[in-house]
């Protein structure tokens, strides 16, 4: 189910619960709390699935841009990749890196050229990346796709994304006291309405 489908189903369920005259106030709270917990669990699963999908996509793009297509079972390819990465890691100056890239391209050393491009990406050496991308249209497309993706490590993006997957608090509950929802979700429908536990308030005294 999509986010909108989960939200719509949740709101419809709350409407049915609140509109049923056969339910006591206690039963309405119990059923509403259980509906909330179910919806919130589904939303959290969906949110994590989106994050996992974005992470996989970024990993695939990184491998296409700066990884290797050689089999990891090929010892020679593994050694060549490791050597190229070690040599690229020693590049501290963009002019030095530009010269190394030119030499690698001239020698047909695609593994080293790729490692230098990865180093340039880490350090923000755009001129070197432009040179590397000049004859690689596939690389350019991957970069464009990478730049179109959200930065999932950005705090503002994380907060905004998380907010999209928070179900509205059910009627009769205070959003500042989520513990009450958890408590009611564990109660039985056929029991008399018990007194909800007192939750200590951070402002002193007790919170309802």
Overall mean pLDDT: 87
Biggest sheet details = 2 strands, antiparallel
Main structural class: mainly alpha
State the share of residues found in helices, binned by percent: 55-70%
Sequence of strands across the biggest β-sheet? 1-2
What's the number of helices? 9
- How many beta-strand runs? 2
| Topology pattern, helix = H, strand = E | HHHHHHHHHEE
Give an overview in words.
The chain is mostly helical. Helices cover 67% and strands 2% of the residues. The chain contains nine helices and two strands, in the order H-H-H-H-H-H-H-H-H-E-E. The chain has helices at residues 3-19, 25-66, 75-89, 94-107, 110-123, 126-133, 137-148, 155-163, 178-185, and strands at 199-200, 206-207. The protein has a two-stranded antiparallel ribbon with strand order 1-2. Strand 1 and strand 2 form a beta hairpin. The longest helix is centred in the N-terminal third of the chain and has 42 residues, at 25-66. It is rod-shaped, with a radius of gyration of 28 Å. The two termini are 35 Å apart.
